[in-house]
Amino acid sequence: AQKITQTQPGMFVQEKEAVTLDCTYDTSDPSYGLFWYKQPSSGEMIFLIYQGSYDQQNATEGRYSLNFQKARKSANLVISASQLGDSAMYFCAMREVQGAQKLVFGQGTRLTINP
Amino acid sequence: GAGVSQTPSNKVTEKGKYVELRCDPISGHTALYWYRQSLGQGPEFLIYFQGTGAADDSGLPNDRFFAVRPEGSVSTLKIQRTERGDSAVYLCASSSSGRREETQYFGPGTRLLVL
Questions:
Q1: Which residue from A30, B12, B33, B43 could staple onto B37, CB 3.0 to 4.6 Å apart?
Q2: A1-5, B24-28, B58-62: least confident range
């Protein structure tokens, strides 16, 4: 069974600092995809970044990068130069290539950016 | 282009009543997903449609829950004999063709409160 663990219920960061949100996962499928979503207070899930298990390089999207350590089964999200608008819930999710199409989400981390 | 839309945005009902929640996916997306998000939790998978057919309904909690997508576009999630434990945010997502590495794009959700 697949499982996503986000161990940080809340994070507080000063504006303009970088922040790392942790995510570890557990799967027996050799091929899988990892996703990060942002959920502001409005409730909509906003896709941020994707990492495939066979991707050679860590994914990057603007200020977002993914620190993918396959042997450790971790996929931490790094946000550089944080902004007040980054305050939100952040969810890590995984989808196996074999088996179900569903995304399995972690519990989330609430990020608060302080001015 | 337009994103995933969901109606109503909020629904309050009484225990035992029947409710319908609607999802309008991104135009041209053949894959559609329903998730349920309880307070303080990550979304949990309910059902996945590929076209008109339910390809995976393993996440539906019991037979009070049912979903349809008769024309391969709009989907309706139906809950019979609602219970207080059904209170949650119901999220709909769509993806282009259902390939496993594809991003799922989410709607704003329907907040269901069962009194």
A1: B43
A2: A1-5
Burial class (CB in 10 A: 0-12, 13-18, 19+), B74: middle
Paired tokens of A52: 């495939």
Hey, of A21, A29, A44, A49, which one would you mutate to test binding to chain B, going by the most B CBs within 10 A of its CB?
A44
Q: What is the number of other CB atoms lying within 10 angstroms of the CB of residue B27?
A: 9
| Cβ separation A44–B43 shorter than 8 A | no
| pLDDT for A107 beyond 80 | yes
Give Cα B69 distance to the centre of its chain. 11
Q: How many angstroms separate the CA atoms of B23 and B69, rounded?
A: 9
Name the band, by pLDDT with cuts 50, 70 and 90, for residue A96: confident
Q: Give chain A's radius of gyration (CA, Å).
A: 14
- CA atoms of B30 and B12, how far apart (whole Å): 30
List pLDDT tens digits, range B80-98.
Answer: 999 999 999 999 999 987 6
The neighbour count for residue B14, using CB atoms within 10 Å, is: 9
How many A-B residue pairs are in contact by the CB < 8 A criterion?
Answer: 65
Give the strand order in the sheet containing B75-79: B5-7, B19-24, B75-79, B65-68
CA distance B61 to B82: 12
Residue A95 in tokens:
């989808």
Residues of chain B contacting residue A96, judged by C-beta atoms under 8 Å apart: 100
Which of the residues B32, B89, B97, B101 would you substitute to probe the A interface, choosing the one with the greatest number of A C-beta atoms within 10 Å? B101
